[in-house]
Amino acid sequence: MKRRIVVFVVFILAIGLCAGLVWFNFFKEKMIKDFFANMQQPPQVVSSAKVEAKTWNPGVSAIGTARAANGVELSFETPGIVKQINFKANQEVRKGEVLVQLDDTVERADLQDVQAAVKVGESNFERAKTLSSRGYGTEVNFDQASAVLAAARSRLARLEATIEQKALKAPFSGVIGIPRIDIGQYLQPGTVIASFQDLSSMKVDFTVPEQDASKIKLGQEVRVGVTGSDLRFTGHVTGKDPRVDPKTRLVSVQAAVENNKDGAILPGQFLNVEAILPPEPNVVTIPQTSVITSLYGDYVYTIEPAEKAGKTVDVAKQVFVKTGRRRGGTVEVLSGVEPGQQVVASGQNKLQAGSTVKINNTIDLTKADATKFATGQ
Q1: With contact defined as beta carbons under 8 Å apart, do 68 and 366 qualify?
Q2: Which is the most buried residue in 72, 87, 101, 236, by most CB within 10 A?
Q3: β-strands 311-320, 297-308: how paired?
């Protein structure tokens, strides 16, 4: 009898223990759910920027190639052997300086003979002229003396021109490049001597889409630079083709740009070009880093005050926007936000709609302001 009672009590205790364990597990899960449901997420640290209406300085951007306003590949018109080279690489020379002299010994020797023939011809011509005027000479003799003199003078002029061509002179002031010839070398006509460039003034050739061709005017200001963020050189449009290339749908434009004394722009160099357009006031802008692109469109996170747990905190609100032009680090906003609102400029990858945020603007991401980009500010 006692044994049955003991077994019964043990059975009841076991059932109670099992029930207690099941209840405890349910209770624990409920407490965990309640804890996480009521737990406040720590605020996410982000940087912010203010939506502003600024003066937008638009422009037509393009890629161009520089070339010197005066630039040639020097060569001789006549053959000969190099006698003297009067320049060194990267030397500045003035217009008219003799750069290379070919051997003209034979031509100068012939020059004396031809000059003597001219003097004899002039004497015979004067004698025939005098006799003809006095009626002692015939018209045939006068014509023959005149023809002989003209032929002698023609040979002299041709020989003097050949001697002149034996001396290669600088056609303008500029900088000469590396010599590509040696003393004693026999040169054929057209052999390139060196590159000769006037680096004080440059021409920049670039193309613009046919849609922007009407925006380009003669005399319009342009800014040029090696990189798109450093357009330090200024110039103006000097020409525009009156037709659209049917293959590329582009219009060719040329601008004149003053180069620095140190020759920062070199002929043939790749350049970023921007034709400056009239400024536009009251354009709503935000940093480009604020805009997030999704399958549903572009959106930003605005920072709005909200009540949470009895406190006023800043929360992120997802707002879809319609964007326009982009320049530098700035984008134009056509709709979605208004001037004066705060948007998240960085740290969006940690956010979702309604997230609590903490603003930290230690690093200013709005310095790359495109409204100042075109004016070099």
Answers
A1: no
A2: 87
A3: antiparallel
Tell me the C-alpha to C-alpha distance, in Å, between residue 325 and each of 295, 322, 332: 20, 10, 5
Weakly modelled stretches of the chain, pLDDT under 50 = 368, 370, 373-377
Q: How far is CA 306 from the centre of its chain?
A: 47
- Residue 362's pLDDT is 80
Q: For residues 315-341, b (16+ Cβ closer than 10 Å) or e, as one string?
A: bbbbeebebeeebbbbbbbeebbeeeb
Which structural domain range is residue 235 located in? 60-69+198-276
Residues 205 and 269 in one domain: yes
pLDDT in tens, 70-123: 889 999 988 999 999 999 998 989 999 999 999 988 888 888 878 888 787 777
Put simply, whether the predicted model's pTM sits higher than 0.90 gets the answer: no
CA atoms within 13 A on the CB side of 151: 9
Domain count, the chain: 3
**Which helix (H) or strand (E) covers residue 99, if one does?**
strand 98-102
Q: Which of 222, 252, 276 is the last residue of a domain?
A: 276
CA pair distance 75, 165, nearest whole angstrom: 10
Q: Which residue has the tokens 């023959």?
A: 144
CB-based contacts of 64, cutoff 8 Å, min separation 6? 204, 205, 206, 224, 255, 270, 271, 272, 273
Task: Give the pLDDT confidence score for residue 373 in this predicted structure.
Answer: 45
Show the CA angle centred on residue 159, arms to residues 154 and 162, nearest 5°: 130
Backbone angles phi, psi at 81, to 5 degrees: -100, 135
